[in-house]
Amino acid sequence: MVGLLLGLAGCATDPSAEYLGGFGDPIRGAALYAPRNLGDTSRWAGQPAEAAVAAEQLEFLTDSLTTDPRYAPEINPAVLQTLQTARTEMRGYLGIAPDAAPAGVIAGLRRAAEGLRAGSRARAEAALAGPAFTAGPTGTLQRLATMPRLPRTAEAAGMVAAEFDRLERRR
User: Which of 4, 68, 103, 130 has its CA 20 to 30 A from that of 59?
Assistant: First the structure.
């Protein structure tokens, strides 16, 4: 029981790691927590590490639901389109190249969050120094620290959670 409680406590520091509700499935877990983590991205203002992980979660969901052999064939195309629009909105706000490879963006945002949580702005900046981050490390960190509410992202968060609810009811 103590291990479970410690595991849950660890989830609270990473908004995309709350997969317990997804029974170990990171895609399902990210979809179920999307309304909480992406429904109002302004909740992360002043918390750039958490904002970076939320942005990483959107990248992860969009990429995974497009390519995962289990979910891609089942997901409503309107949900995918809404997620892609949300990713475009998030990338536009943060200064991420529209054609950047999702894996590189995910890794950069993840490492930036880890650096910020460790108290190392230098590590966070190094993680965001690649060509995918067109606003540059300082610009991207500033934008993460002042994250506004992104309406397309909020819409996608609700849609993806509702889609997973629909898929669960079908089974």
Answer: 4
Residue 48, Ramachandran bin (φ over 0: left; ψ between -120 and 50: alpha; else beta): alpha
Confidence of residue 6 (pLDDT cuts 50, 70, 90): very low
- Write out the DSSP string of 85-133: HHHHHHHHHHTB-TT--HHHHHHHHHHHHHHHHTT-HHHHHHHT-STTB
Please tell me the number of Cα atoms within 13 Å of 156 on its side-chain side: 30
Q: What are the pLDDT digits (tens) for 42-76?
A: 999 999 999 999 999 999 999 999 999 999 999 99
Closest alpha carbon to 93 in 15, 152, 53 = 152
Confidence label for 24 from pLDDT (cuts 50, 70 and 90): confident
77-94 helix and 136-145 helix, angle to the nearest 10 degrees: 110
The Cα 137–Cα 125 span in angstroms is: 5
Domain borders along the chain are 2-170
Please tell me the pTM assigned to this model: 0.86
**Residue bearing the bigger pLDDT, 17 or 56:** 56
Task: Look up tokens 């639901």; give the residue.
Answer: 65
